[in-house]
Structures are given as structure tokens and as C-alpha cells.
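User: C-alpha cells for this one?
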Amino acid sequence: MRNSSVRRINNAVRRLDWALVESELNPPDGSDGAPFELCAATRDDWDRYIQSEQQALRSRWMAWGNDRVFIVEFPESLHENLVVAARKAIIAATGTGSTHLEEHGASYIGNRVTLPDDINALIAFLEPDESFGPVRGLPGAVLPPGFSWSKFHTLKVAIGVSQGWGPAIQQGQAGQQGQAGQQGQQGQQGQAGRRRGTLNEKADAWRQCPGVEYVLSIHVSAGLQTREYRLDSIVNGQFENPDILHAPIDNNTVVQFDPWRLLGIPGGAFLPADFNNPVHFNLFDVVEPIIQGEQEDIALLERAAAAAAEQPPHRHQRRP
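Assistant:
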């Protein structure tokens, strides 16, 4: 059953017309795209695929909802370059590199025995683009109950190119930490059934994960016209400022984190030597070089296409 679920999704990926996928995710006219429906799958099928090492398409390019698998990001350089740049900037901003705060990549946390079923259904196999947490055994860091060091993430990063913010999501009661029973059953059918991969949905899911203090969301449109971000601070499973809106990224955009919260250390306790207080960096300086590089690549391709169009048709010469 496990192998057949993975094989069925892989076969659907291999049959794709990628030009059609790209046109639906990133319409040529610059309008907002839509998730591309790949195939039918139960949540168990999808969770098996996420855990498989035999993926024809990385699961973090996709999302699951309403018994369907959707492709929500087109696998291209812009998205991945933004992920790499954000990772480097955050680690550099600590002042001590990865000595105290380390990267955990796109790893999922898996089911946690201390969480109710509705929360596990929502976040257990939800993959970020990048995540960070204190290094194993960092003095003073407090593990959330039921979590190991490798699953303790204080910062989640989500980057959308094809997928933007999506509709605003109100903080509901059905999915909050520690509430099970009838609400948990409702959460399994509702929240877990809408995992379509928008930035708002991801942030709303991550706020309910124990240990997560911040969610940094970045949206750069495929046409490069839109460059936006939002930094959500999370306190006791709720957005500290639920009314905060995403904002344009300009040359004054500074992202700032509380070092104690990043390291999972109680406020006022000793910080590791040389760890910056606060941890901050200019997001414009991170994003702008990526955008300029993309623009240069587009110009190169356009010039190459124009040059090729001017060449006379190639004629094969007969051998004497």
C-alpha cells in the first residue's frame, strides 16, 4: 500500500505537461495563478509520499487538500535562490554563524504524542522552505514537551513565488494547542483538509506548533513585480499582532528577532557569548541581488532567442 501510493503520485508527475503547469501557476499575463491539480490522494497517501525518498517531484513544491494533491510552486531557480539567500542572511545575522542557531531545512516535525490529533493532522508533515532552532543541548534552551532537538524549530521560513498570500485567515479556536475532543475532530476535517500552500495558510498552521516563535513569509512574484514580506511573532500559539499585513520590501526593510526567543531560552537568561542582540538584517539586501540576477538571466535568454530568430535556417550539406 505504501509503495503503491507513492508510485501513483510519481506516475502522475511523470505524465505532466510542464508547459501547462507553468502557465497555470504563473500565467503569462502576470495575473495571479492557481494551484495545479495533480491527482486524487487521501491524506495517508500524501503523508506516505512526504516520507518517501522516491519522489518524482519534491513534496515541498506541492500541497494536499480535499483529497487532492496540488502543485503550488513551479520548480525553478527564483524560489530556490531566495531560500538559500534567506538562510545565509539569518545565520550570518546571529554573529556566531551556526554555532548556537542551526538550520533544519525543509524537515517536517512528524506526529508528536503530546499534541492533539487535529494539530498533528495539520502540521506533522507540513514542510517549510527553511527552519531554524537551537543547537542540540544548548545551555538554557527549553525543549517543548514531546519534542527532540532536531524537531525543535523556533523560526519557520516560507517563500512563495507561484503561490502568494491567499485569503486572510482568522485565528480560530478549533485548531489551538491543547484543544481536542469534538474540536479536534472538526479540525481534522476542516483545517487539515485545506492544505493548499498559500503563505497565510502556512503561517496559520505554524503558529500552532509548540516552540515556534516566528514565521517569516516572503513573496516575490514570478514576473518580479511584487516583492513583499511579513514577520509573524507568535505568543502562546497565537499571532502577537493578528492584524499585521504583508508589506513591500524596500531598502529600509529590516527584519529583527529577539535572540532569547530564537534560541528557546527564557527571557533575561544569559545569551551565548557574541550572539547578537537583537538578531537583524536588511531583507532588501537579501532579495534585491536575486531579483537582479533573474532580470539579467531573462535579458540573456531574450537576446539569445532574438539572435536565433535572425539566423537563416540551417541546411544540411550532402556529402560529396
